[in-house]
Structure of Glycosyltransferase family 4 protein:
Amino acid sequence: MASLSTISAKPFATSRTTHALHQIGNNGGHVFVLRALRQFPGLTTIHDIGLFYLYELEQPGMDAMLAEMAHSAPLLAPRFGQHWKRLGIKTKANYALFDMQRELLARSSGVVVHSLFAKAKLAAIYGEAATRHVSVIPHFAPPPVEMAGQQQAREWLGLPQDSFIVTTSGFATNAKRFDWLMQGLKQVLAQGIELRWIHAGEERAEEYNLSAELERFPLLRQRAEITGYVDEATLNAHVSACDVLVNLRFPSVGESSGSLARAFSAGRCCLVTDTASYRELPREAVVHLPLMSPVPSLVAALVALYRDPALLRAIGENARRFAETTLSLETVGRQYRDAIEAAAEIPLERPGLQPQPRRAARPPCLTLNGSGVTDRGEVARLLRKQQGRCQVLLKFKDMHDLARASREQAPLLGNLLPEHVRLVDTRILSGSAPDGRGEALLPPEAAGACGILLHLDIAGEAA
């Protein structure tokens, strides 16, 4: 592995000596990174633009999730939030539609993503101002010398030297489109081409039962192997041993692929879906499969590569050159050095180094004209930046006005409160002078008011 002195041509220009660097992805192993970012802001590298699963693991309850969903897709969140909270309905669409990146962008002094697609998506959702500190730095590839040759890797794994091996890797998920792959491999075998498929990775049966799906393809099943979890050395060997690495994605959320970077360094030919960040890979270094015809394109590509070993080697060599230049540790390291220096110039408070603020004795009270409120978006805008306990006073002209609104917008509070806001208590205020018994419990804004005083508990900032 290259040392820092190798990848950095000059020392850091900033006078600061401490830099918080966070690497975050969409799995349980990154929950502690998200929590550390909240305490120690810094430069954050986002490997997965969709973090719904990560937040689902990290958040203690549903309400905080609903608050973040409202930032990701404000127009969709109310309906999807209702379905989830009130009906218990949550589908795979939630993971694709709600990227949950607002907090990372706000808490980071600098952000790194691995593709122009990822940066453009963040800017489209959160705006140019919120993504001004986002840099695009490609996912590095390990030095080619760290990847074994094909013959050596096959000897180490006990694989035959004369087999045409197609490899996939990593966790088996729906988005990796094993359905397309198995259908395509079935058709290739039907043409009399002998091949072997190895999936070097772990199954998540609750998400995608790869073994069960493979049983539907008996001819392919005889030529397939699912290794289960493998360590890094074994994964590298499987990547080096293959003839073709297949890396399909749909839907893609701009994620990066470490296995793909390994394959480039090993000089292997890779097949990718022509979508999202994969479209940015050089056309001469990978084979792009059209999204509208993935299976026929996959079959045609594999047959052509099997019958033309020179073409297979040429694409692999182009991939290796891409790894040695654009994706090299030296190139990526220089870009990271610049990003770290830029992030160090942006002042952000580090809560982890500050004493915890004392909670106010009385929660804030916000006022809203109840007669003019027609949807929960108005209430959400009022509650923006509010967390924890607060009060909202819905003011009405008189009790007749309150009764009219309750009748015309029934159920009034059910239609007005965002899904991530929990109603703790309500109090109807008639507008008459208080009798003194509950006066001490009322905020000053409620003195002599007619309306509804809501005591709320807000799990996260409103959209």
User: Anything to note?
Assistant: DSSP finds 20 helices and 14 strands in the chain. Residues 144-327 form a domain with the Rossmann fold fold (CATH 3.40.50.2000). The CA atoms of residues 362 and 441 lie 9 Å apart.
